[in-house]
Amino acid sequence: MIQSRVQITVRYAETDQMGFVYHGNYLPWFEVARTHMLKEQGIPYRQLEKEGFFLPVLEVGLRYHKPAFYDDELIVVSTMRERPSIRIHIEYEVLRGDELLVSGHTRHAFIDRAGRPVRPPASFSERMAVLFAT
């Protein structure tokens, strides 16, 4: 299992008229958490793109438990429970302290510059083998 944490401070522009974080703003936070996790593991997304590999979202799901508000200090936890192959499944939790606000997941697949499904680069597969061997 791979897990990463990243801190987010809610900006005023991310709230709606009721003062809650607008529901669509959680997806960019998931992206921040996902790219942060890959970078922490030595697989910067920028490098994948440079090598001609992309990870479009195939599926996304969110469950809203409690609202977040302006200036909240949040932690977005991203977790990869299984060693990825052609597809990657990542789970997310948005926390305010110990309080679960949002849970969700994304599923991605590797594609090339032409948009065709491909196997991940060897460097990615090798790194995942090391990370999931322990």
Secondary structure elements and their pairing?
Layout: E1 2-9, H1 26-40, H2 45-50, E2 57-64, E3 73-80, E4 87-96, E5 99-109, H3 122-133
Antiparallel strand pairs: 1-3, 2-5, 3-4, 4-5
Could you tell me how far the N terminus lies from the C terminus, measured between alpha carbons in angstroms?
A: 9 Å
- The count of DSSP E runs of length 2 or more, i.e. the number of strands, is 5
What summary fits the major beta sheet?
5 strands, antiparallel
- Helix and strand content put the structural class at alpha+beta
User: Helical percent range?
Assistant: 10-25%
If you average the pLDDT, what whole number results?
96
Strand content: 25-35%
Structure annotation, total helices: 3
Order of helices and strands: EHHEEEEH
Biggest β-sheet: strands ordered side by side in the sheet = 1-3-4-5-2
CATH superfamily: Hotdog Thioesterase
Structure notes:
- With 134 residues, this protein is of the alpha+beta class.
- Helix content is 25%, strand content 34%.
- It is built from three helices and five strands, in the order βααββββα.
- The protein has helices at residues 26-40, 45-50, 122-133, and strands at 2-9, 57-64, 73-80, 87-96, 99-109.
- It starts with a strand and ends with a helix.
